[in-house]
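As a point of orientation, let us examine one representative protein, giving the amino acid sequence and backbone structure tokens.
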Amino acid sequence: MNEEGKWKLKEILEWVYCIIIAIILALLVRYFVGTPTIVQQPSMYPTLKQGQRLILNRMIRTTKTMPERGDIVTFEAPSKSYVSVIDANLENPVATYDYNINNVFSKFRYYVLEIGKTSYIKRVIGLPGEHVTIENGKVYINGTELEESYLQENVTTTSLEGVYTDITVPENCLFVMGDNRSQSTDSRRFGCIPLEKVESKVWIRFWPFDLFGKVE
């Protein structure tokens, strides 16, 4: 290979290295810092509507920080979206995760690239150690009615045929529900979400432009 050929090969390799590094950095930022997403579910209506674009803050997962009540978070969908009375463990009401992902490539594909992975967006209602009760169309935390200004007027909270409506939230877990209470598959039906399954906190809505800003 002549000098010109060597120079061209070196230039190509440099571009390949730059592209690889850029992809790795993008994946690291997406996993550990933040990423955009599109709302695909109606469970948070009217706070979040289908088709809206959001920026998710991943630092909550990176630092393993416990969210606060009222935060809107995303998390890995449980493998069972509904637990029957027969199968429910009211003493340890934790959502079921029994996905069989063994090898390194499959884990990278599922957790980093998020191919074949489903995530839910819900609002944090109950924190570890709190007694959550749903009755008479209301939510009670340790016996005190929870003020929920983010709900539409006249919205009531029912069991939605779920069994987890009178429980104590286990350690390092969260009780979550959608703002669209009649159209939300949430902790009432599948149980509490382990902190390790929380992926991000909803941070900013950037589309549509007239609603640009922090989401609360």
Q: What stands out?
A: The mean pLDDT is 92. The first strand starts at residue 34 and ends at 38.
